[in-house]
């Protein structure tokens, strides 16, 4: 059985300079996952304003960063592209992971689809990802629409799972 791994995407100060839907609720759900996981991997976006060590690049202060957490920097929406994420997951003997974070419609979505096509069993924490309002849709609409799309992705033999953080934690505890 694969270890209990949670990947937390782009939950950084600089990302949250744009208001995001339900920050308090989403960070609480993410902390619930982090507390139950064996391994936490924080993905941190790099750009002109978010550089290693600066305040914008830092993980949100309300998120728990457990000892032994792993950190991966990325420059694209795809957390696997030109990063050590795939290698790290292999070192952890991972065949599956839970994913959460920001932004639902960009980096979380891309990482789910790439991870799934690489053969990982991906479980999306339905209540632990967020985004901002967009021109044509509210953040809530985007979150619900993406949860529906991910639950219905066609990948024969490797369906993406979508569950609440509480359901995921219960499943991990039952399997332990």
Secondary structure layout:
Elements: E1 5-9, H1 23-36, E2 39-45, E3 70-74, H2 85-91, E4 96-102, H3 104-117, E5 121-130, H4 139-151, E6 161-163, H5 165-175
Parallel strand pairs: 1-2, 1-4, 2-3, 4-5, 5-6
Helix pairs in contact: 1-5, 3-4
Characterization of this structure:
- The chain is α/β, with parallel strands linked by helices.
- The protein has helices at 23-36, 85-91, 104-117, 139-151, 165-175, and strands spanning 5-9, 39-45, 70-74, 96-102, 121-130, 161-163.
- Strands 3-2-1-4-5-6 form a six-stranded parallel sheet.
- Helix 4 (139-151) links the parallel strand 5 (121-130) and strand 6.
- Helix 3 packs parallel to helix 4 (139-151).
- It is globular, with a radius of gyration of 15 Å.
- It starts with a strand and ends with a helix.
| Class by SSE composition | alpha/beta
Strand order of the largest sheet: 3-2-1-4-5-6
The number of E-state strands comes to 6
Q: What pattern of helices and strands is seen along the backbone?
A: EHEEHEHEHEH
Radius of gyration: 15 Å
As a percent range, the share of strand residues is 15-25%
| Major sheet summary line | 6 strands, parallel
For the record, give the distance between the C-alpha atoms at the N and C termini, rounded to a whole number.
10 Å
Average residue pLDDT: 96
Low-confidence stretches: none
The 3D shape can be described as globular
* Overall helicity: 25-40%
* SS summary, helix count: 5
């Amino acid at each position: 059985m694969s270890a209990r791994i949670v990947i937390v995407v782009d939950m950084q100060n600089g990302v949250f300079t744009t208001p995001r839907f339900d920050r308090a609720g989403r960070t609480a759900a993410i902390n619930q996952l982090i507390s139950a996981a064996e391994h936490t991997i924080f993905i941190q976006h790099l750009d002109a304003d978010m550089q290693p060590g600066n305040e914008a690049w830092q993980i949100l202060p309300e998120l728990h960063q457990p000892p032994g957490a792993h950190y991966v920097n990325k420059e694209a929406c795809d957390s696997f592209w030109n990063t050590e994420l795939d290698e790290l997951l292999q070192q952890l003997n991972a065949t599956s992971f839970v994913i959460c974070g920001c932004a639902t419609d960009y980096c979380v979505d891309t990482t789910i689809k790439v991870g799934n096509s690489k053969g990982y069993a991906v479980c999306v924490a339905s209540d632990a990802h967020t985004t901002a309002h967009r021109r044509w849709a509210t953040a809530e609409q985007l979150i619900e629409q993406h949860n529906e799309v991910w639950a219905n992705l066609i990948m024969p033999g490797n369906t993406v799972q979508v569950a609440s953080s509480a359901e995921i934690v219960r499943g991990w505890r039952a399997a332990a």
